[in-house]
Description:
With 313 residues, the protein is of the alpha/beta class. The protein contains ten helices and twelve strands.
Amino acid sequence: MTAMETVTAIEQLKDITIDRTVWDKAVKARSDAGRERLVKFYLPSFKKYSTSEIDNKCANSSFPAISLTGKKCKLMCDHCQGKLLLSMKPATTPGALIETAKAAFNGGAEGILISGGSDEENRICFEPFLSAIARIKSTTRLTVAVHTGLIDRKTSNGLADAGVDTAMIDIIGADETIRSVYHLDKTVDDFEESLMSLCETSMKVAPHIVAGLHYGKFLGERTAMKMVARHNTASLVLVVCVPYHAKDRTMFSTPGSREVGSFMAECRQAMPDRELILGCARPGGAGGSEIDAYALAAGFDCIAFPADGIVSA
Length: 313
């Protein structure tokens, strides 16, 4: 029995359809990279998750997300509309950030993610909070991650000097997507400049690529992949656009699993030694299970919220 047949024979995965060409492309990419099929599964604590194989029983406690802007976002991108901020803990002053972090630490948290809504230039105002972040790092054992928007070298260095461990940033590879989805008068070069500024610090950098960000279509993903490959990042996180919060869901389609799977294989080909992570956001149902299976085939290192049956695969 082949590896593909083994996967599709699993009871929970019996209804998925695996494309042989995409599967073989993914397996070859993993083999050429010399990667064993060893994968970590993780369950971020911002939501409860349970399958027949795996579950997390501590929602919103081990690594809570904190918004420096509360529920406010001035950019209001078409795919999000600021709704992702609603699940985050608000901390709009340095004092509130310190207290929120201390409460998380005393409650057993391992770390915190600090982000917030963007201004009209897709920037998050971290500067007033740098001293607070430094105090959090000096008075707790919390791991601190930030998810930035566009960022300059001064702010990148400030975050690193404050002790931030990991920096994340969404990388967009098409000017048309930046203008249309983000309503932003910036270019692909601006995103690469931000990535470069983060990579020049001591922080681990984990850029994200949102597959299908251009209203469900692939447009700049491969350019974004090449941008990430050019820089010394710790990892690449791939998520799939699922516009639950879009202003108008009819504007978006859902990327097909074959297209996503093929792109994952190309990511492994382009970055044979890089940690590749399949992140939280992606479709559910059979399509989501197929994406997870392709991630296994391509030698992805981590899968968040694995579909039922994937752990056994």
